[in-house]
Design a protein that fits this description.
globular, mainly alpha
Length: about 140
C-alpha cells in the first residue's frame, strides 16, 4: 500500500469536518488553517521542522489533487471536500514557505505524484487511497 499522508500533519485536516456528511464549507477553512498553522508554528514534533511539515502538507495536497483527477473514474468521490482539503493544506504551506517556494515545491510534488499514479496504475492507486482513507472522519471516497 502506498502511504500518502503524514498523520501528524494531516490529522487536523481530517478532524475539522462539518457536522453532516459532505458539510465541509468555507467556514471550516479558517479553523482548519488555524489548527494546521498552530501545529506548524509550535515546536516541531517528531523532529520535523516547519519546512518539513509544510512539505508534508504539499504531499497531502498533491494526493487530493490526484484523487480528484484520477479516482472519479473508478469510485464516487467528494470532489468538493478533496479540493478544500487540498487548498487549505496548500494555503498553510504557502504561509510557511512563501509563495514562490511553495508553488515550486507543489509543482515538483504534483509531477512526482502523477508519476506514482502512472507507475502503480490509476485504479490500484485509487483503491489504495480509498483503503487508507476509509477510517478517517472526512470521507473523500463516498463508497
Amino acid at each position: 500500500m502506498h502511504s500518502t499522508y503524514d498523520p501528524f500533519v494531516v490529522a487536523p485536516l481530517m478532524k475539522a469536518r462539518g457536522a453532516a456528511a459532505g458539510d465541509v464549507v468555507m467556514r471550516c477553512q479558517a479553523p482548519v488553517a488555524l489548527t494546521l498553522a498552530a501545529g506548524l508554528y509550535a515546536p516541531p514534533s517528531h523532529a520535523q521542522t516547519q519546512d518539513e511539515q509544510a512539505l508534508a502538507l504539499l504531499r497531502a495536497s498533491s494526493a487530493q489533487s490526484a484523487i480528484i483527477t484520477f479516482c472519479g473514474k473508478h469510485f464516487a468521490i467528494d470532489g468538493t471536500t478533496a479540493l478544500r482539503v487540498s487548498q487549505t493544506a496548500r494555503d498553510v504551506a504557502t504561509k510557511v514557505l512563501g509563495p514562490k517556494r511553495a508553488n515550486a515545491a507543489f509543482t515538483d510534488e504534483l509531477a512526482r505524484r502523477y508519476a506514482e499514479v502512472k507507475e502503480v496504475g490509476a485504479q490500484q492507486w485509487c483503491t489504495d487511497q480509498r483503503d487508507e482513507l476509509s477510517n478517517g472522519e472526512v470521507r473523500i471516497f463516498k463508497d
